Amino acid sequence: MKSILLCRSAFTSKHFTFLNIPHPVYKAAMALLICLFFSVLAFAQQQTGTVKGTITLANGNTAPLVSVTLTGVKATKTDESGNYVLTTIPAGIYTLTVKHIGLVSQNRQINVKANETITADFVLREDNETLKEVVITSGYNKFAKKETDGVAKLPLKNLENPQVYNVVPKDLLQDQVIISYNDVLKNVTGVSQGLVNGSNSFYMRGFSNQSLLRNGVQDNKDNSLEVANIESIEVLKGPSATLFGNSLTSFGGLINRVTKKPFGTFKGEVSYTIGGYDLSRITADINTPLDKEKGLLLRTNIAYHDEGNYMDAGFTRRLFIAPSLLYQVTDRLSISLDAEIYQQKSNDFHRLFPENSFTQTNPKTLDLNWKRYYQGNDLTESKPSVSLIAEVNYKLSDRWKSQTILSQTKHSSDGYRVWNEIHGDSVNRNIRYSNSNYNTIEAQQNFTGDFRIGNHRNRLVIGLDYYTNRANENFLIAYPFDKVKLIGKDPEYTNISKQTVDATLAQLSPIRNISSQSTYSAYFSDVFNITSDFMAMVSLRFDNFSSGGSYNVTADTTTGKYNQTNLSPKLGLVYQVIPEKVSLFGNYMNGFTNNGPVIQPDGERSAFKPSNANQWELGFKVDLFDGMLNSTFSYYDIKVKDVIRLDPDRVGFAVQDGGQASKGFEGELIANLTKGFNVVAGYSHNKAYAINTNPDIDGLRQWTGPAETANLWINYAFQKKALKGLSFGIGGNYNSKAYISQSRSTGEFYIPSYTVLNAVTSYENRIFRLSLKLDNLTNEVYWGSYVNQMMPRRFSATVAFKL
């Protein structure tokens, strides 16, 4: 006790003032570090050993998610590379069992000795007798693939991670016959669509969010995201700037797309989808080992998507090519290069903004013709992009690895965007023509260690990150272009075309701006096993942001240059009540946004600090019945401080004392109830409101998504021989009403609550798969948050041939 008191007194808040760490945070961090130090001394003498190894298949491929059991003591599963580790095993003789569906199980007797590590590798072969009976892998919890190193940048299992995250595997995408990226996120608890289909905009925990990461680094582009190259989607909940920065995350969380990777055998699949509203889609996934002996592997995904609209105009055409090359130079060194190449031509998203002068409260009362698109097919926008990721992984030793990543995304937009504003009984049509280019680069270096301090496992990542983007924007804006009647006939409705718009834009002067920004960051995250079942995480990010400002080409002036430095901490505790089965967790996480200087009405330049979001969260995770039941439940409380707002006492002046609150709970259930019967379900409740921003709206929910969401998908695959390969799936989403605007003076406008169901039936064998799908099964009439009616019921059919 005396030693602890001396350690605590040696560090006071004055030692941390130059780092700008909040007093409660430094106290919690110091208490946790002291706890870790003394726990090392307390447990250093335990007589335990470690068992580790790698499991591969007979063809040389890695074997992830293989069950590894030390009889009567502990169990685990292999990671994506086929590795496993069992720590703090009391000295003695045990039976080690490895098993997986479709593979022949193996047993081995091992002798664990104190303070020693035993390596036990296995090579598993296919169980041909089982494979004869199983046409598709339907007799296990195929949707519960949570084990990933990406969410923590460490080899950390779900039950060991104090953060809540969801993983949507490609198995679920295939079962639901998903062709739209927006539909992927409908499987994630608490995530709702932000704008309209294809807009890459979502709400999470009361904050807007975009999907800006691919394989853990930036993929910042403006076109609709393609699903053909997705292996899984990782959604981290809560402020996550500590490991991923603030440019790619929001206070609600982040969305990371994990892409398909090449492997050691030839395999392929070609599919074709046809459906209502002129849907036509072709995809191909071809894996080709170029030189298997030298470890040179190639996988290529291709998609062509052509889709119309249920409205009187509108279409999307997209060509997508995604090659992925892997070169396994040695058993320690691998080099990979991934690319995604888009070419998209489409009409802009349909939008109807209700202005405050509009007296109705929701779209149901508008009595509109929802098939009106308010623009023609010739007002299109082309959005090409090229995204490249080069990655070098090197195994420095048995305990340390190096990962070097370089990512670049270039995209552009050339064409027209239309947005419409409702004013009383009329609609103002506003048009922007843009010919702009964007370039984003990120370079990242990570060193990951998995080592022991005494008998205590320690997992540590130390990283450096450089992020920069540059925008060269050239645009014209007709605000408004014209006005047409909201209800009834109006001959001016069709008087919008490329010819009439170009004639109007030719009379305007172009706006040209060049802007840039860069971020230099360093971070670390450490997970320390106080005991085998009690873990602590301490993480910190140092972030230096530099804005090059915005250069106005016409005026030859640059404004908005500034620099800002911020620290982002993260703390977490996990205790496994039942090892490998039930864990309790708590976390403190931080996110931030940079704020530029403001020129006040009196000419004074006010410099503002970053706005910070701090989250406290408590919950539990379970993984029971050999993985058949996987669940996460949590309660969170997020508070944002230092939000810039208008000063109520001085007209036009800005002050930095506003805030925002968001709190709620989430629950997810992924289960294999019986062989072939799989369920994914989730429910979330969120309360979000502004604090000290404007008396007219403080305490009221604004445009932050619905307060309640629920998702459900049920899939059953028949097991009897006569019906083997046949499966049925049904499910959907519930969203409570979502406010577009709400104030005490002008009232409210909201999107009504809705429930949308989808259904799929499929038949699959070794040669082909046939799927029939009904989107919006009950033909529910519902609206997106841009006040456009969403797609009515649509039938589609997909046939896929396996190579």
Automatic annotation (TrEMBL):
TonB-dependent receptor-like beta-barrel domain: residues covered: 346-777
Keyword Ion transport found: yes
Gene3D superfamilies (UniProt xref): Carboxypeptidase-like, regulatory domain, TonB-dependent receptor, beta-barrel domain, TonB-dependent receptor, plug domain
Keywords linked to the UniProt accession: Cell outer membrane, Ion transport, Iron, Iron transport, Membrane, Receptor, Signal, TonB box, Transmembrane, Transmembrane beta strand, Transport
Membrane topology term: Multi-pass membrane protein
Primary subcellular site in the record, as a coarse category: membrane
Pfam families: CarbopepD_reg_2, Plug, TonB_dep_Rec_b-barrel
Intracellular or extracellular location(s): Cell outer membrane
Family that this chain belongs to: Belongs to the TonB-dependent receptor family.
Name assigned to this protein: TonB-dependent receptor
Species, as recorded: Mucilaginibacter aquariorum
Lineage, top ranks: Bacteria, Pseudomonadati, Bacteroidota, Sphingobacteriia, Sphingobacteriales
